């Protein structure tokens, strides 16, 4: 075999879960995954720490821990420890799902109480994951398909918000953001169309790079905080002591169940879109267990819960790059960025509009994959009823969170702004109560 043919064969392994890929060839694909999720990984920390009244220096240390724990969680998902981890190319990060409940609990009970609830809630979710085979039987394929589709739709506003400059930006939707987001999107699209071979799967990385370079002369990149935190800084272990409050534990554990729902959807979507097969029971068990136990570990670093990142599932659906070594290089980059704050600070300067231009199509890919999964379940009248009602209520009602004001605060925090949780619960209930006979296709 010629040298060229050998190189092409090696690069083809990026489309194989366990293919052998040289580290040099794997790094760009890993970096692409990290850049796609980096801002979303640190944003929950910034929001919750702000509500809890933390100083800028304290927030910086928490961000450092968040980067490290995301890298550790990703490696365990890729290369399971015992029954913890799925063995799939899942990228982990700090979960947005918990932000509402933490913003409610933090000012009342304090950050230490949040940490105690994360420890207990994470352990409970982890145990549920290990025994998932006993309760997963009630979750039919049509429920998986509903959840994946809901995840895709729930992410579209996230991509749009980034495109406009990020939630809370003073000049949100300005012409600068429109130009930067549009140029980035066009670069991604054109590179994906015209690049040859494996290079086309780096379209998101190229778009991020070109958008970043363009943003610098536009004055949209702030380098002022690059040296904050020093050059090298070890992570802190147990920076906060635990306080255990039963109300907080019940509330946070409830959100962990919602997080498990999203993990089920992400894991199912990844297997379907990246590997062209259904997810296995073992993979789901390992994925949920990793979600829980690594979240508990995260609390030891003073950090919030972590979960699978749907934007990276969208990236896999778009590129079909599933190689574990390639994704692992990104996890290693995250861990290094945590030990070297200057790397993390540099990655954090990526403008939201650039991220939005790259992610909007990725999120659309999740929607398309969910629809494809629905098609695989068949369009019987029963399935159509489950999909239509669960998506209609889940997406529609959560667009008007005021509808939930008659319910207790715990219910509001779980469901009012989380369409995935509503879709999941409704789809399960409908799947259990609707009669299964006479399911004729229409």
Task: Give a short synopsis of this structure.
By secondary structure, the protein is mainly α. Helix content is 67%, strand content 1%. α5 packs across α9 and α6 packs antiparallel against α14.
Describe the structure.
With 442 residues, the chain is mostly helical. The protein has one domain. The protein is built from 17 helices and two strands. It has a two-stranded antiparallel ribbon. The longest helix is centred in the middle third of the chain and has 30 residues. The model has no long low-confidence stretch (mean pLDDT 88).
Attribute tags:
mainly alpha; 442 residues; globular; two-stranded antiparallel sheet; 17 helices
List the helices and strands and how they pair.
Blueprint: H1 3-12, H2 23-51, H3 56-78, E1 92-94, H4 99-109, H5 111-130, H6 141-163, H7 175-194, H8 203-215, H9 246-275, H10 281-300, E2 306-308, H11 310-319, H12 324-339, H13 341-347, H14 352-377, H15 381-398, H16 409-415, H17 419-433
Antiparallel strand pairs: 1-2
**Largest sheet, order of strands side by side?**
1-2
Strand content: under 5%
**Rg, Cα atoms, Å:** 21 Å
Overall tally of domains: 1
Order of helices and strands: HHHEHHHHHHHEHHHHHHH
Q: Per the principal axes of the C-alpha atoms, what is the gross shape?
A: globular
The strand count comes to 2
User: Residue share in helices?
Assistant: 55-70%
Mean pLDDT: 88
Termini, distance in Å? Answer: 52 Å
Major beta sheet, specifics?
2 strands, antiparallel
Helix/sheet category:
mainly alpha
SS summary, helix count: 17
The stretches of 5 or more residues where confidence is low (pLDDT under 50) are: none
